[in-house]
Protein: Transposase
Organism: Geomonas anaerohicana
Amino acid sequence: MIGWFDAEGELEKIRALCMARRRRRHYKSALDPYRAELVALRRSGATYAEMRLWLLKAKHKQVAVSTVQRYLAKLPESPKVSGADTLVKSGDDGGRA
């Protein structure tokens, strides 16, 4: 006869091991060197398109507007602006003819 088996306890140990083995990777962003400047520009009221233009002209870094938006959304110190400038595809007139 097999002795008492604590399945829940064993499962808890296995999950703890899995969590310890699982490491969050931080893939370095092309925008990491400009992090402080981008946050400062955003806090000053710059739009994502303006920050993209700044990157292009001042830093010779070509990125899409959505790249800047996604990058800043992931930062803890980035100010959250409620829908002030949502992305609009070029040529999109918002459904108006």
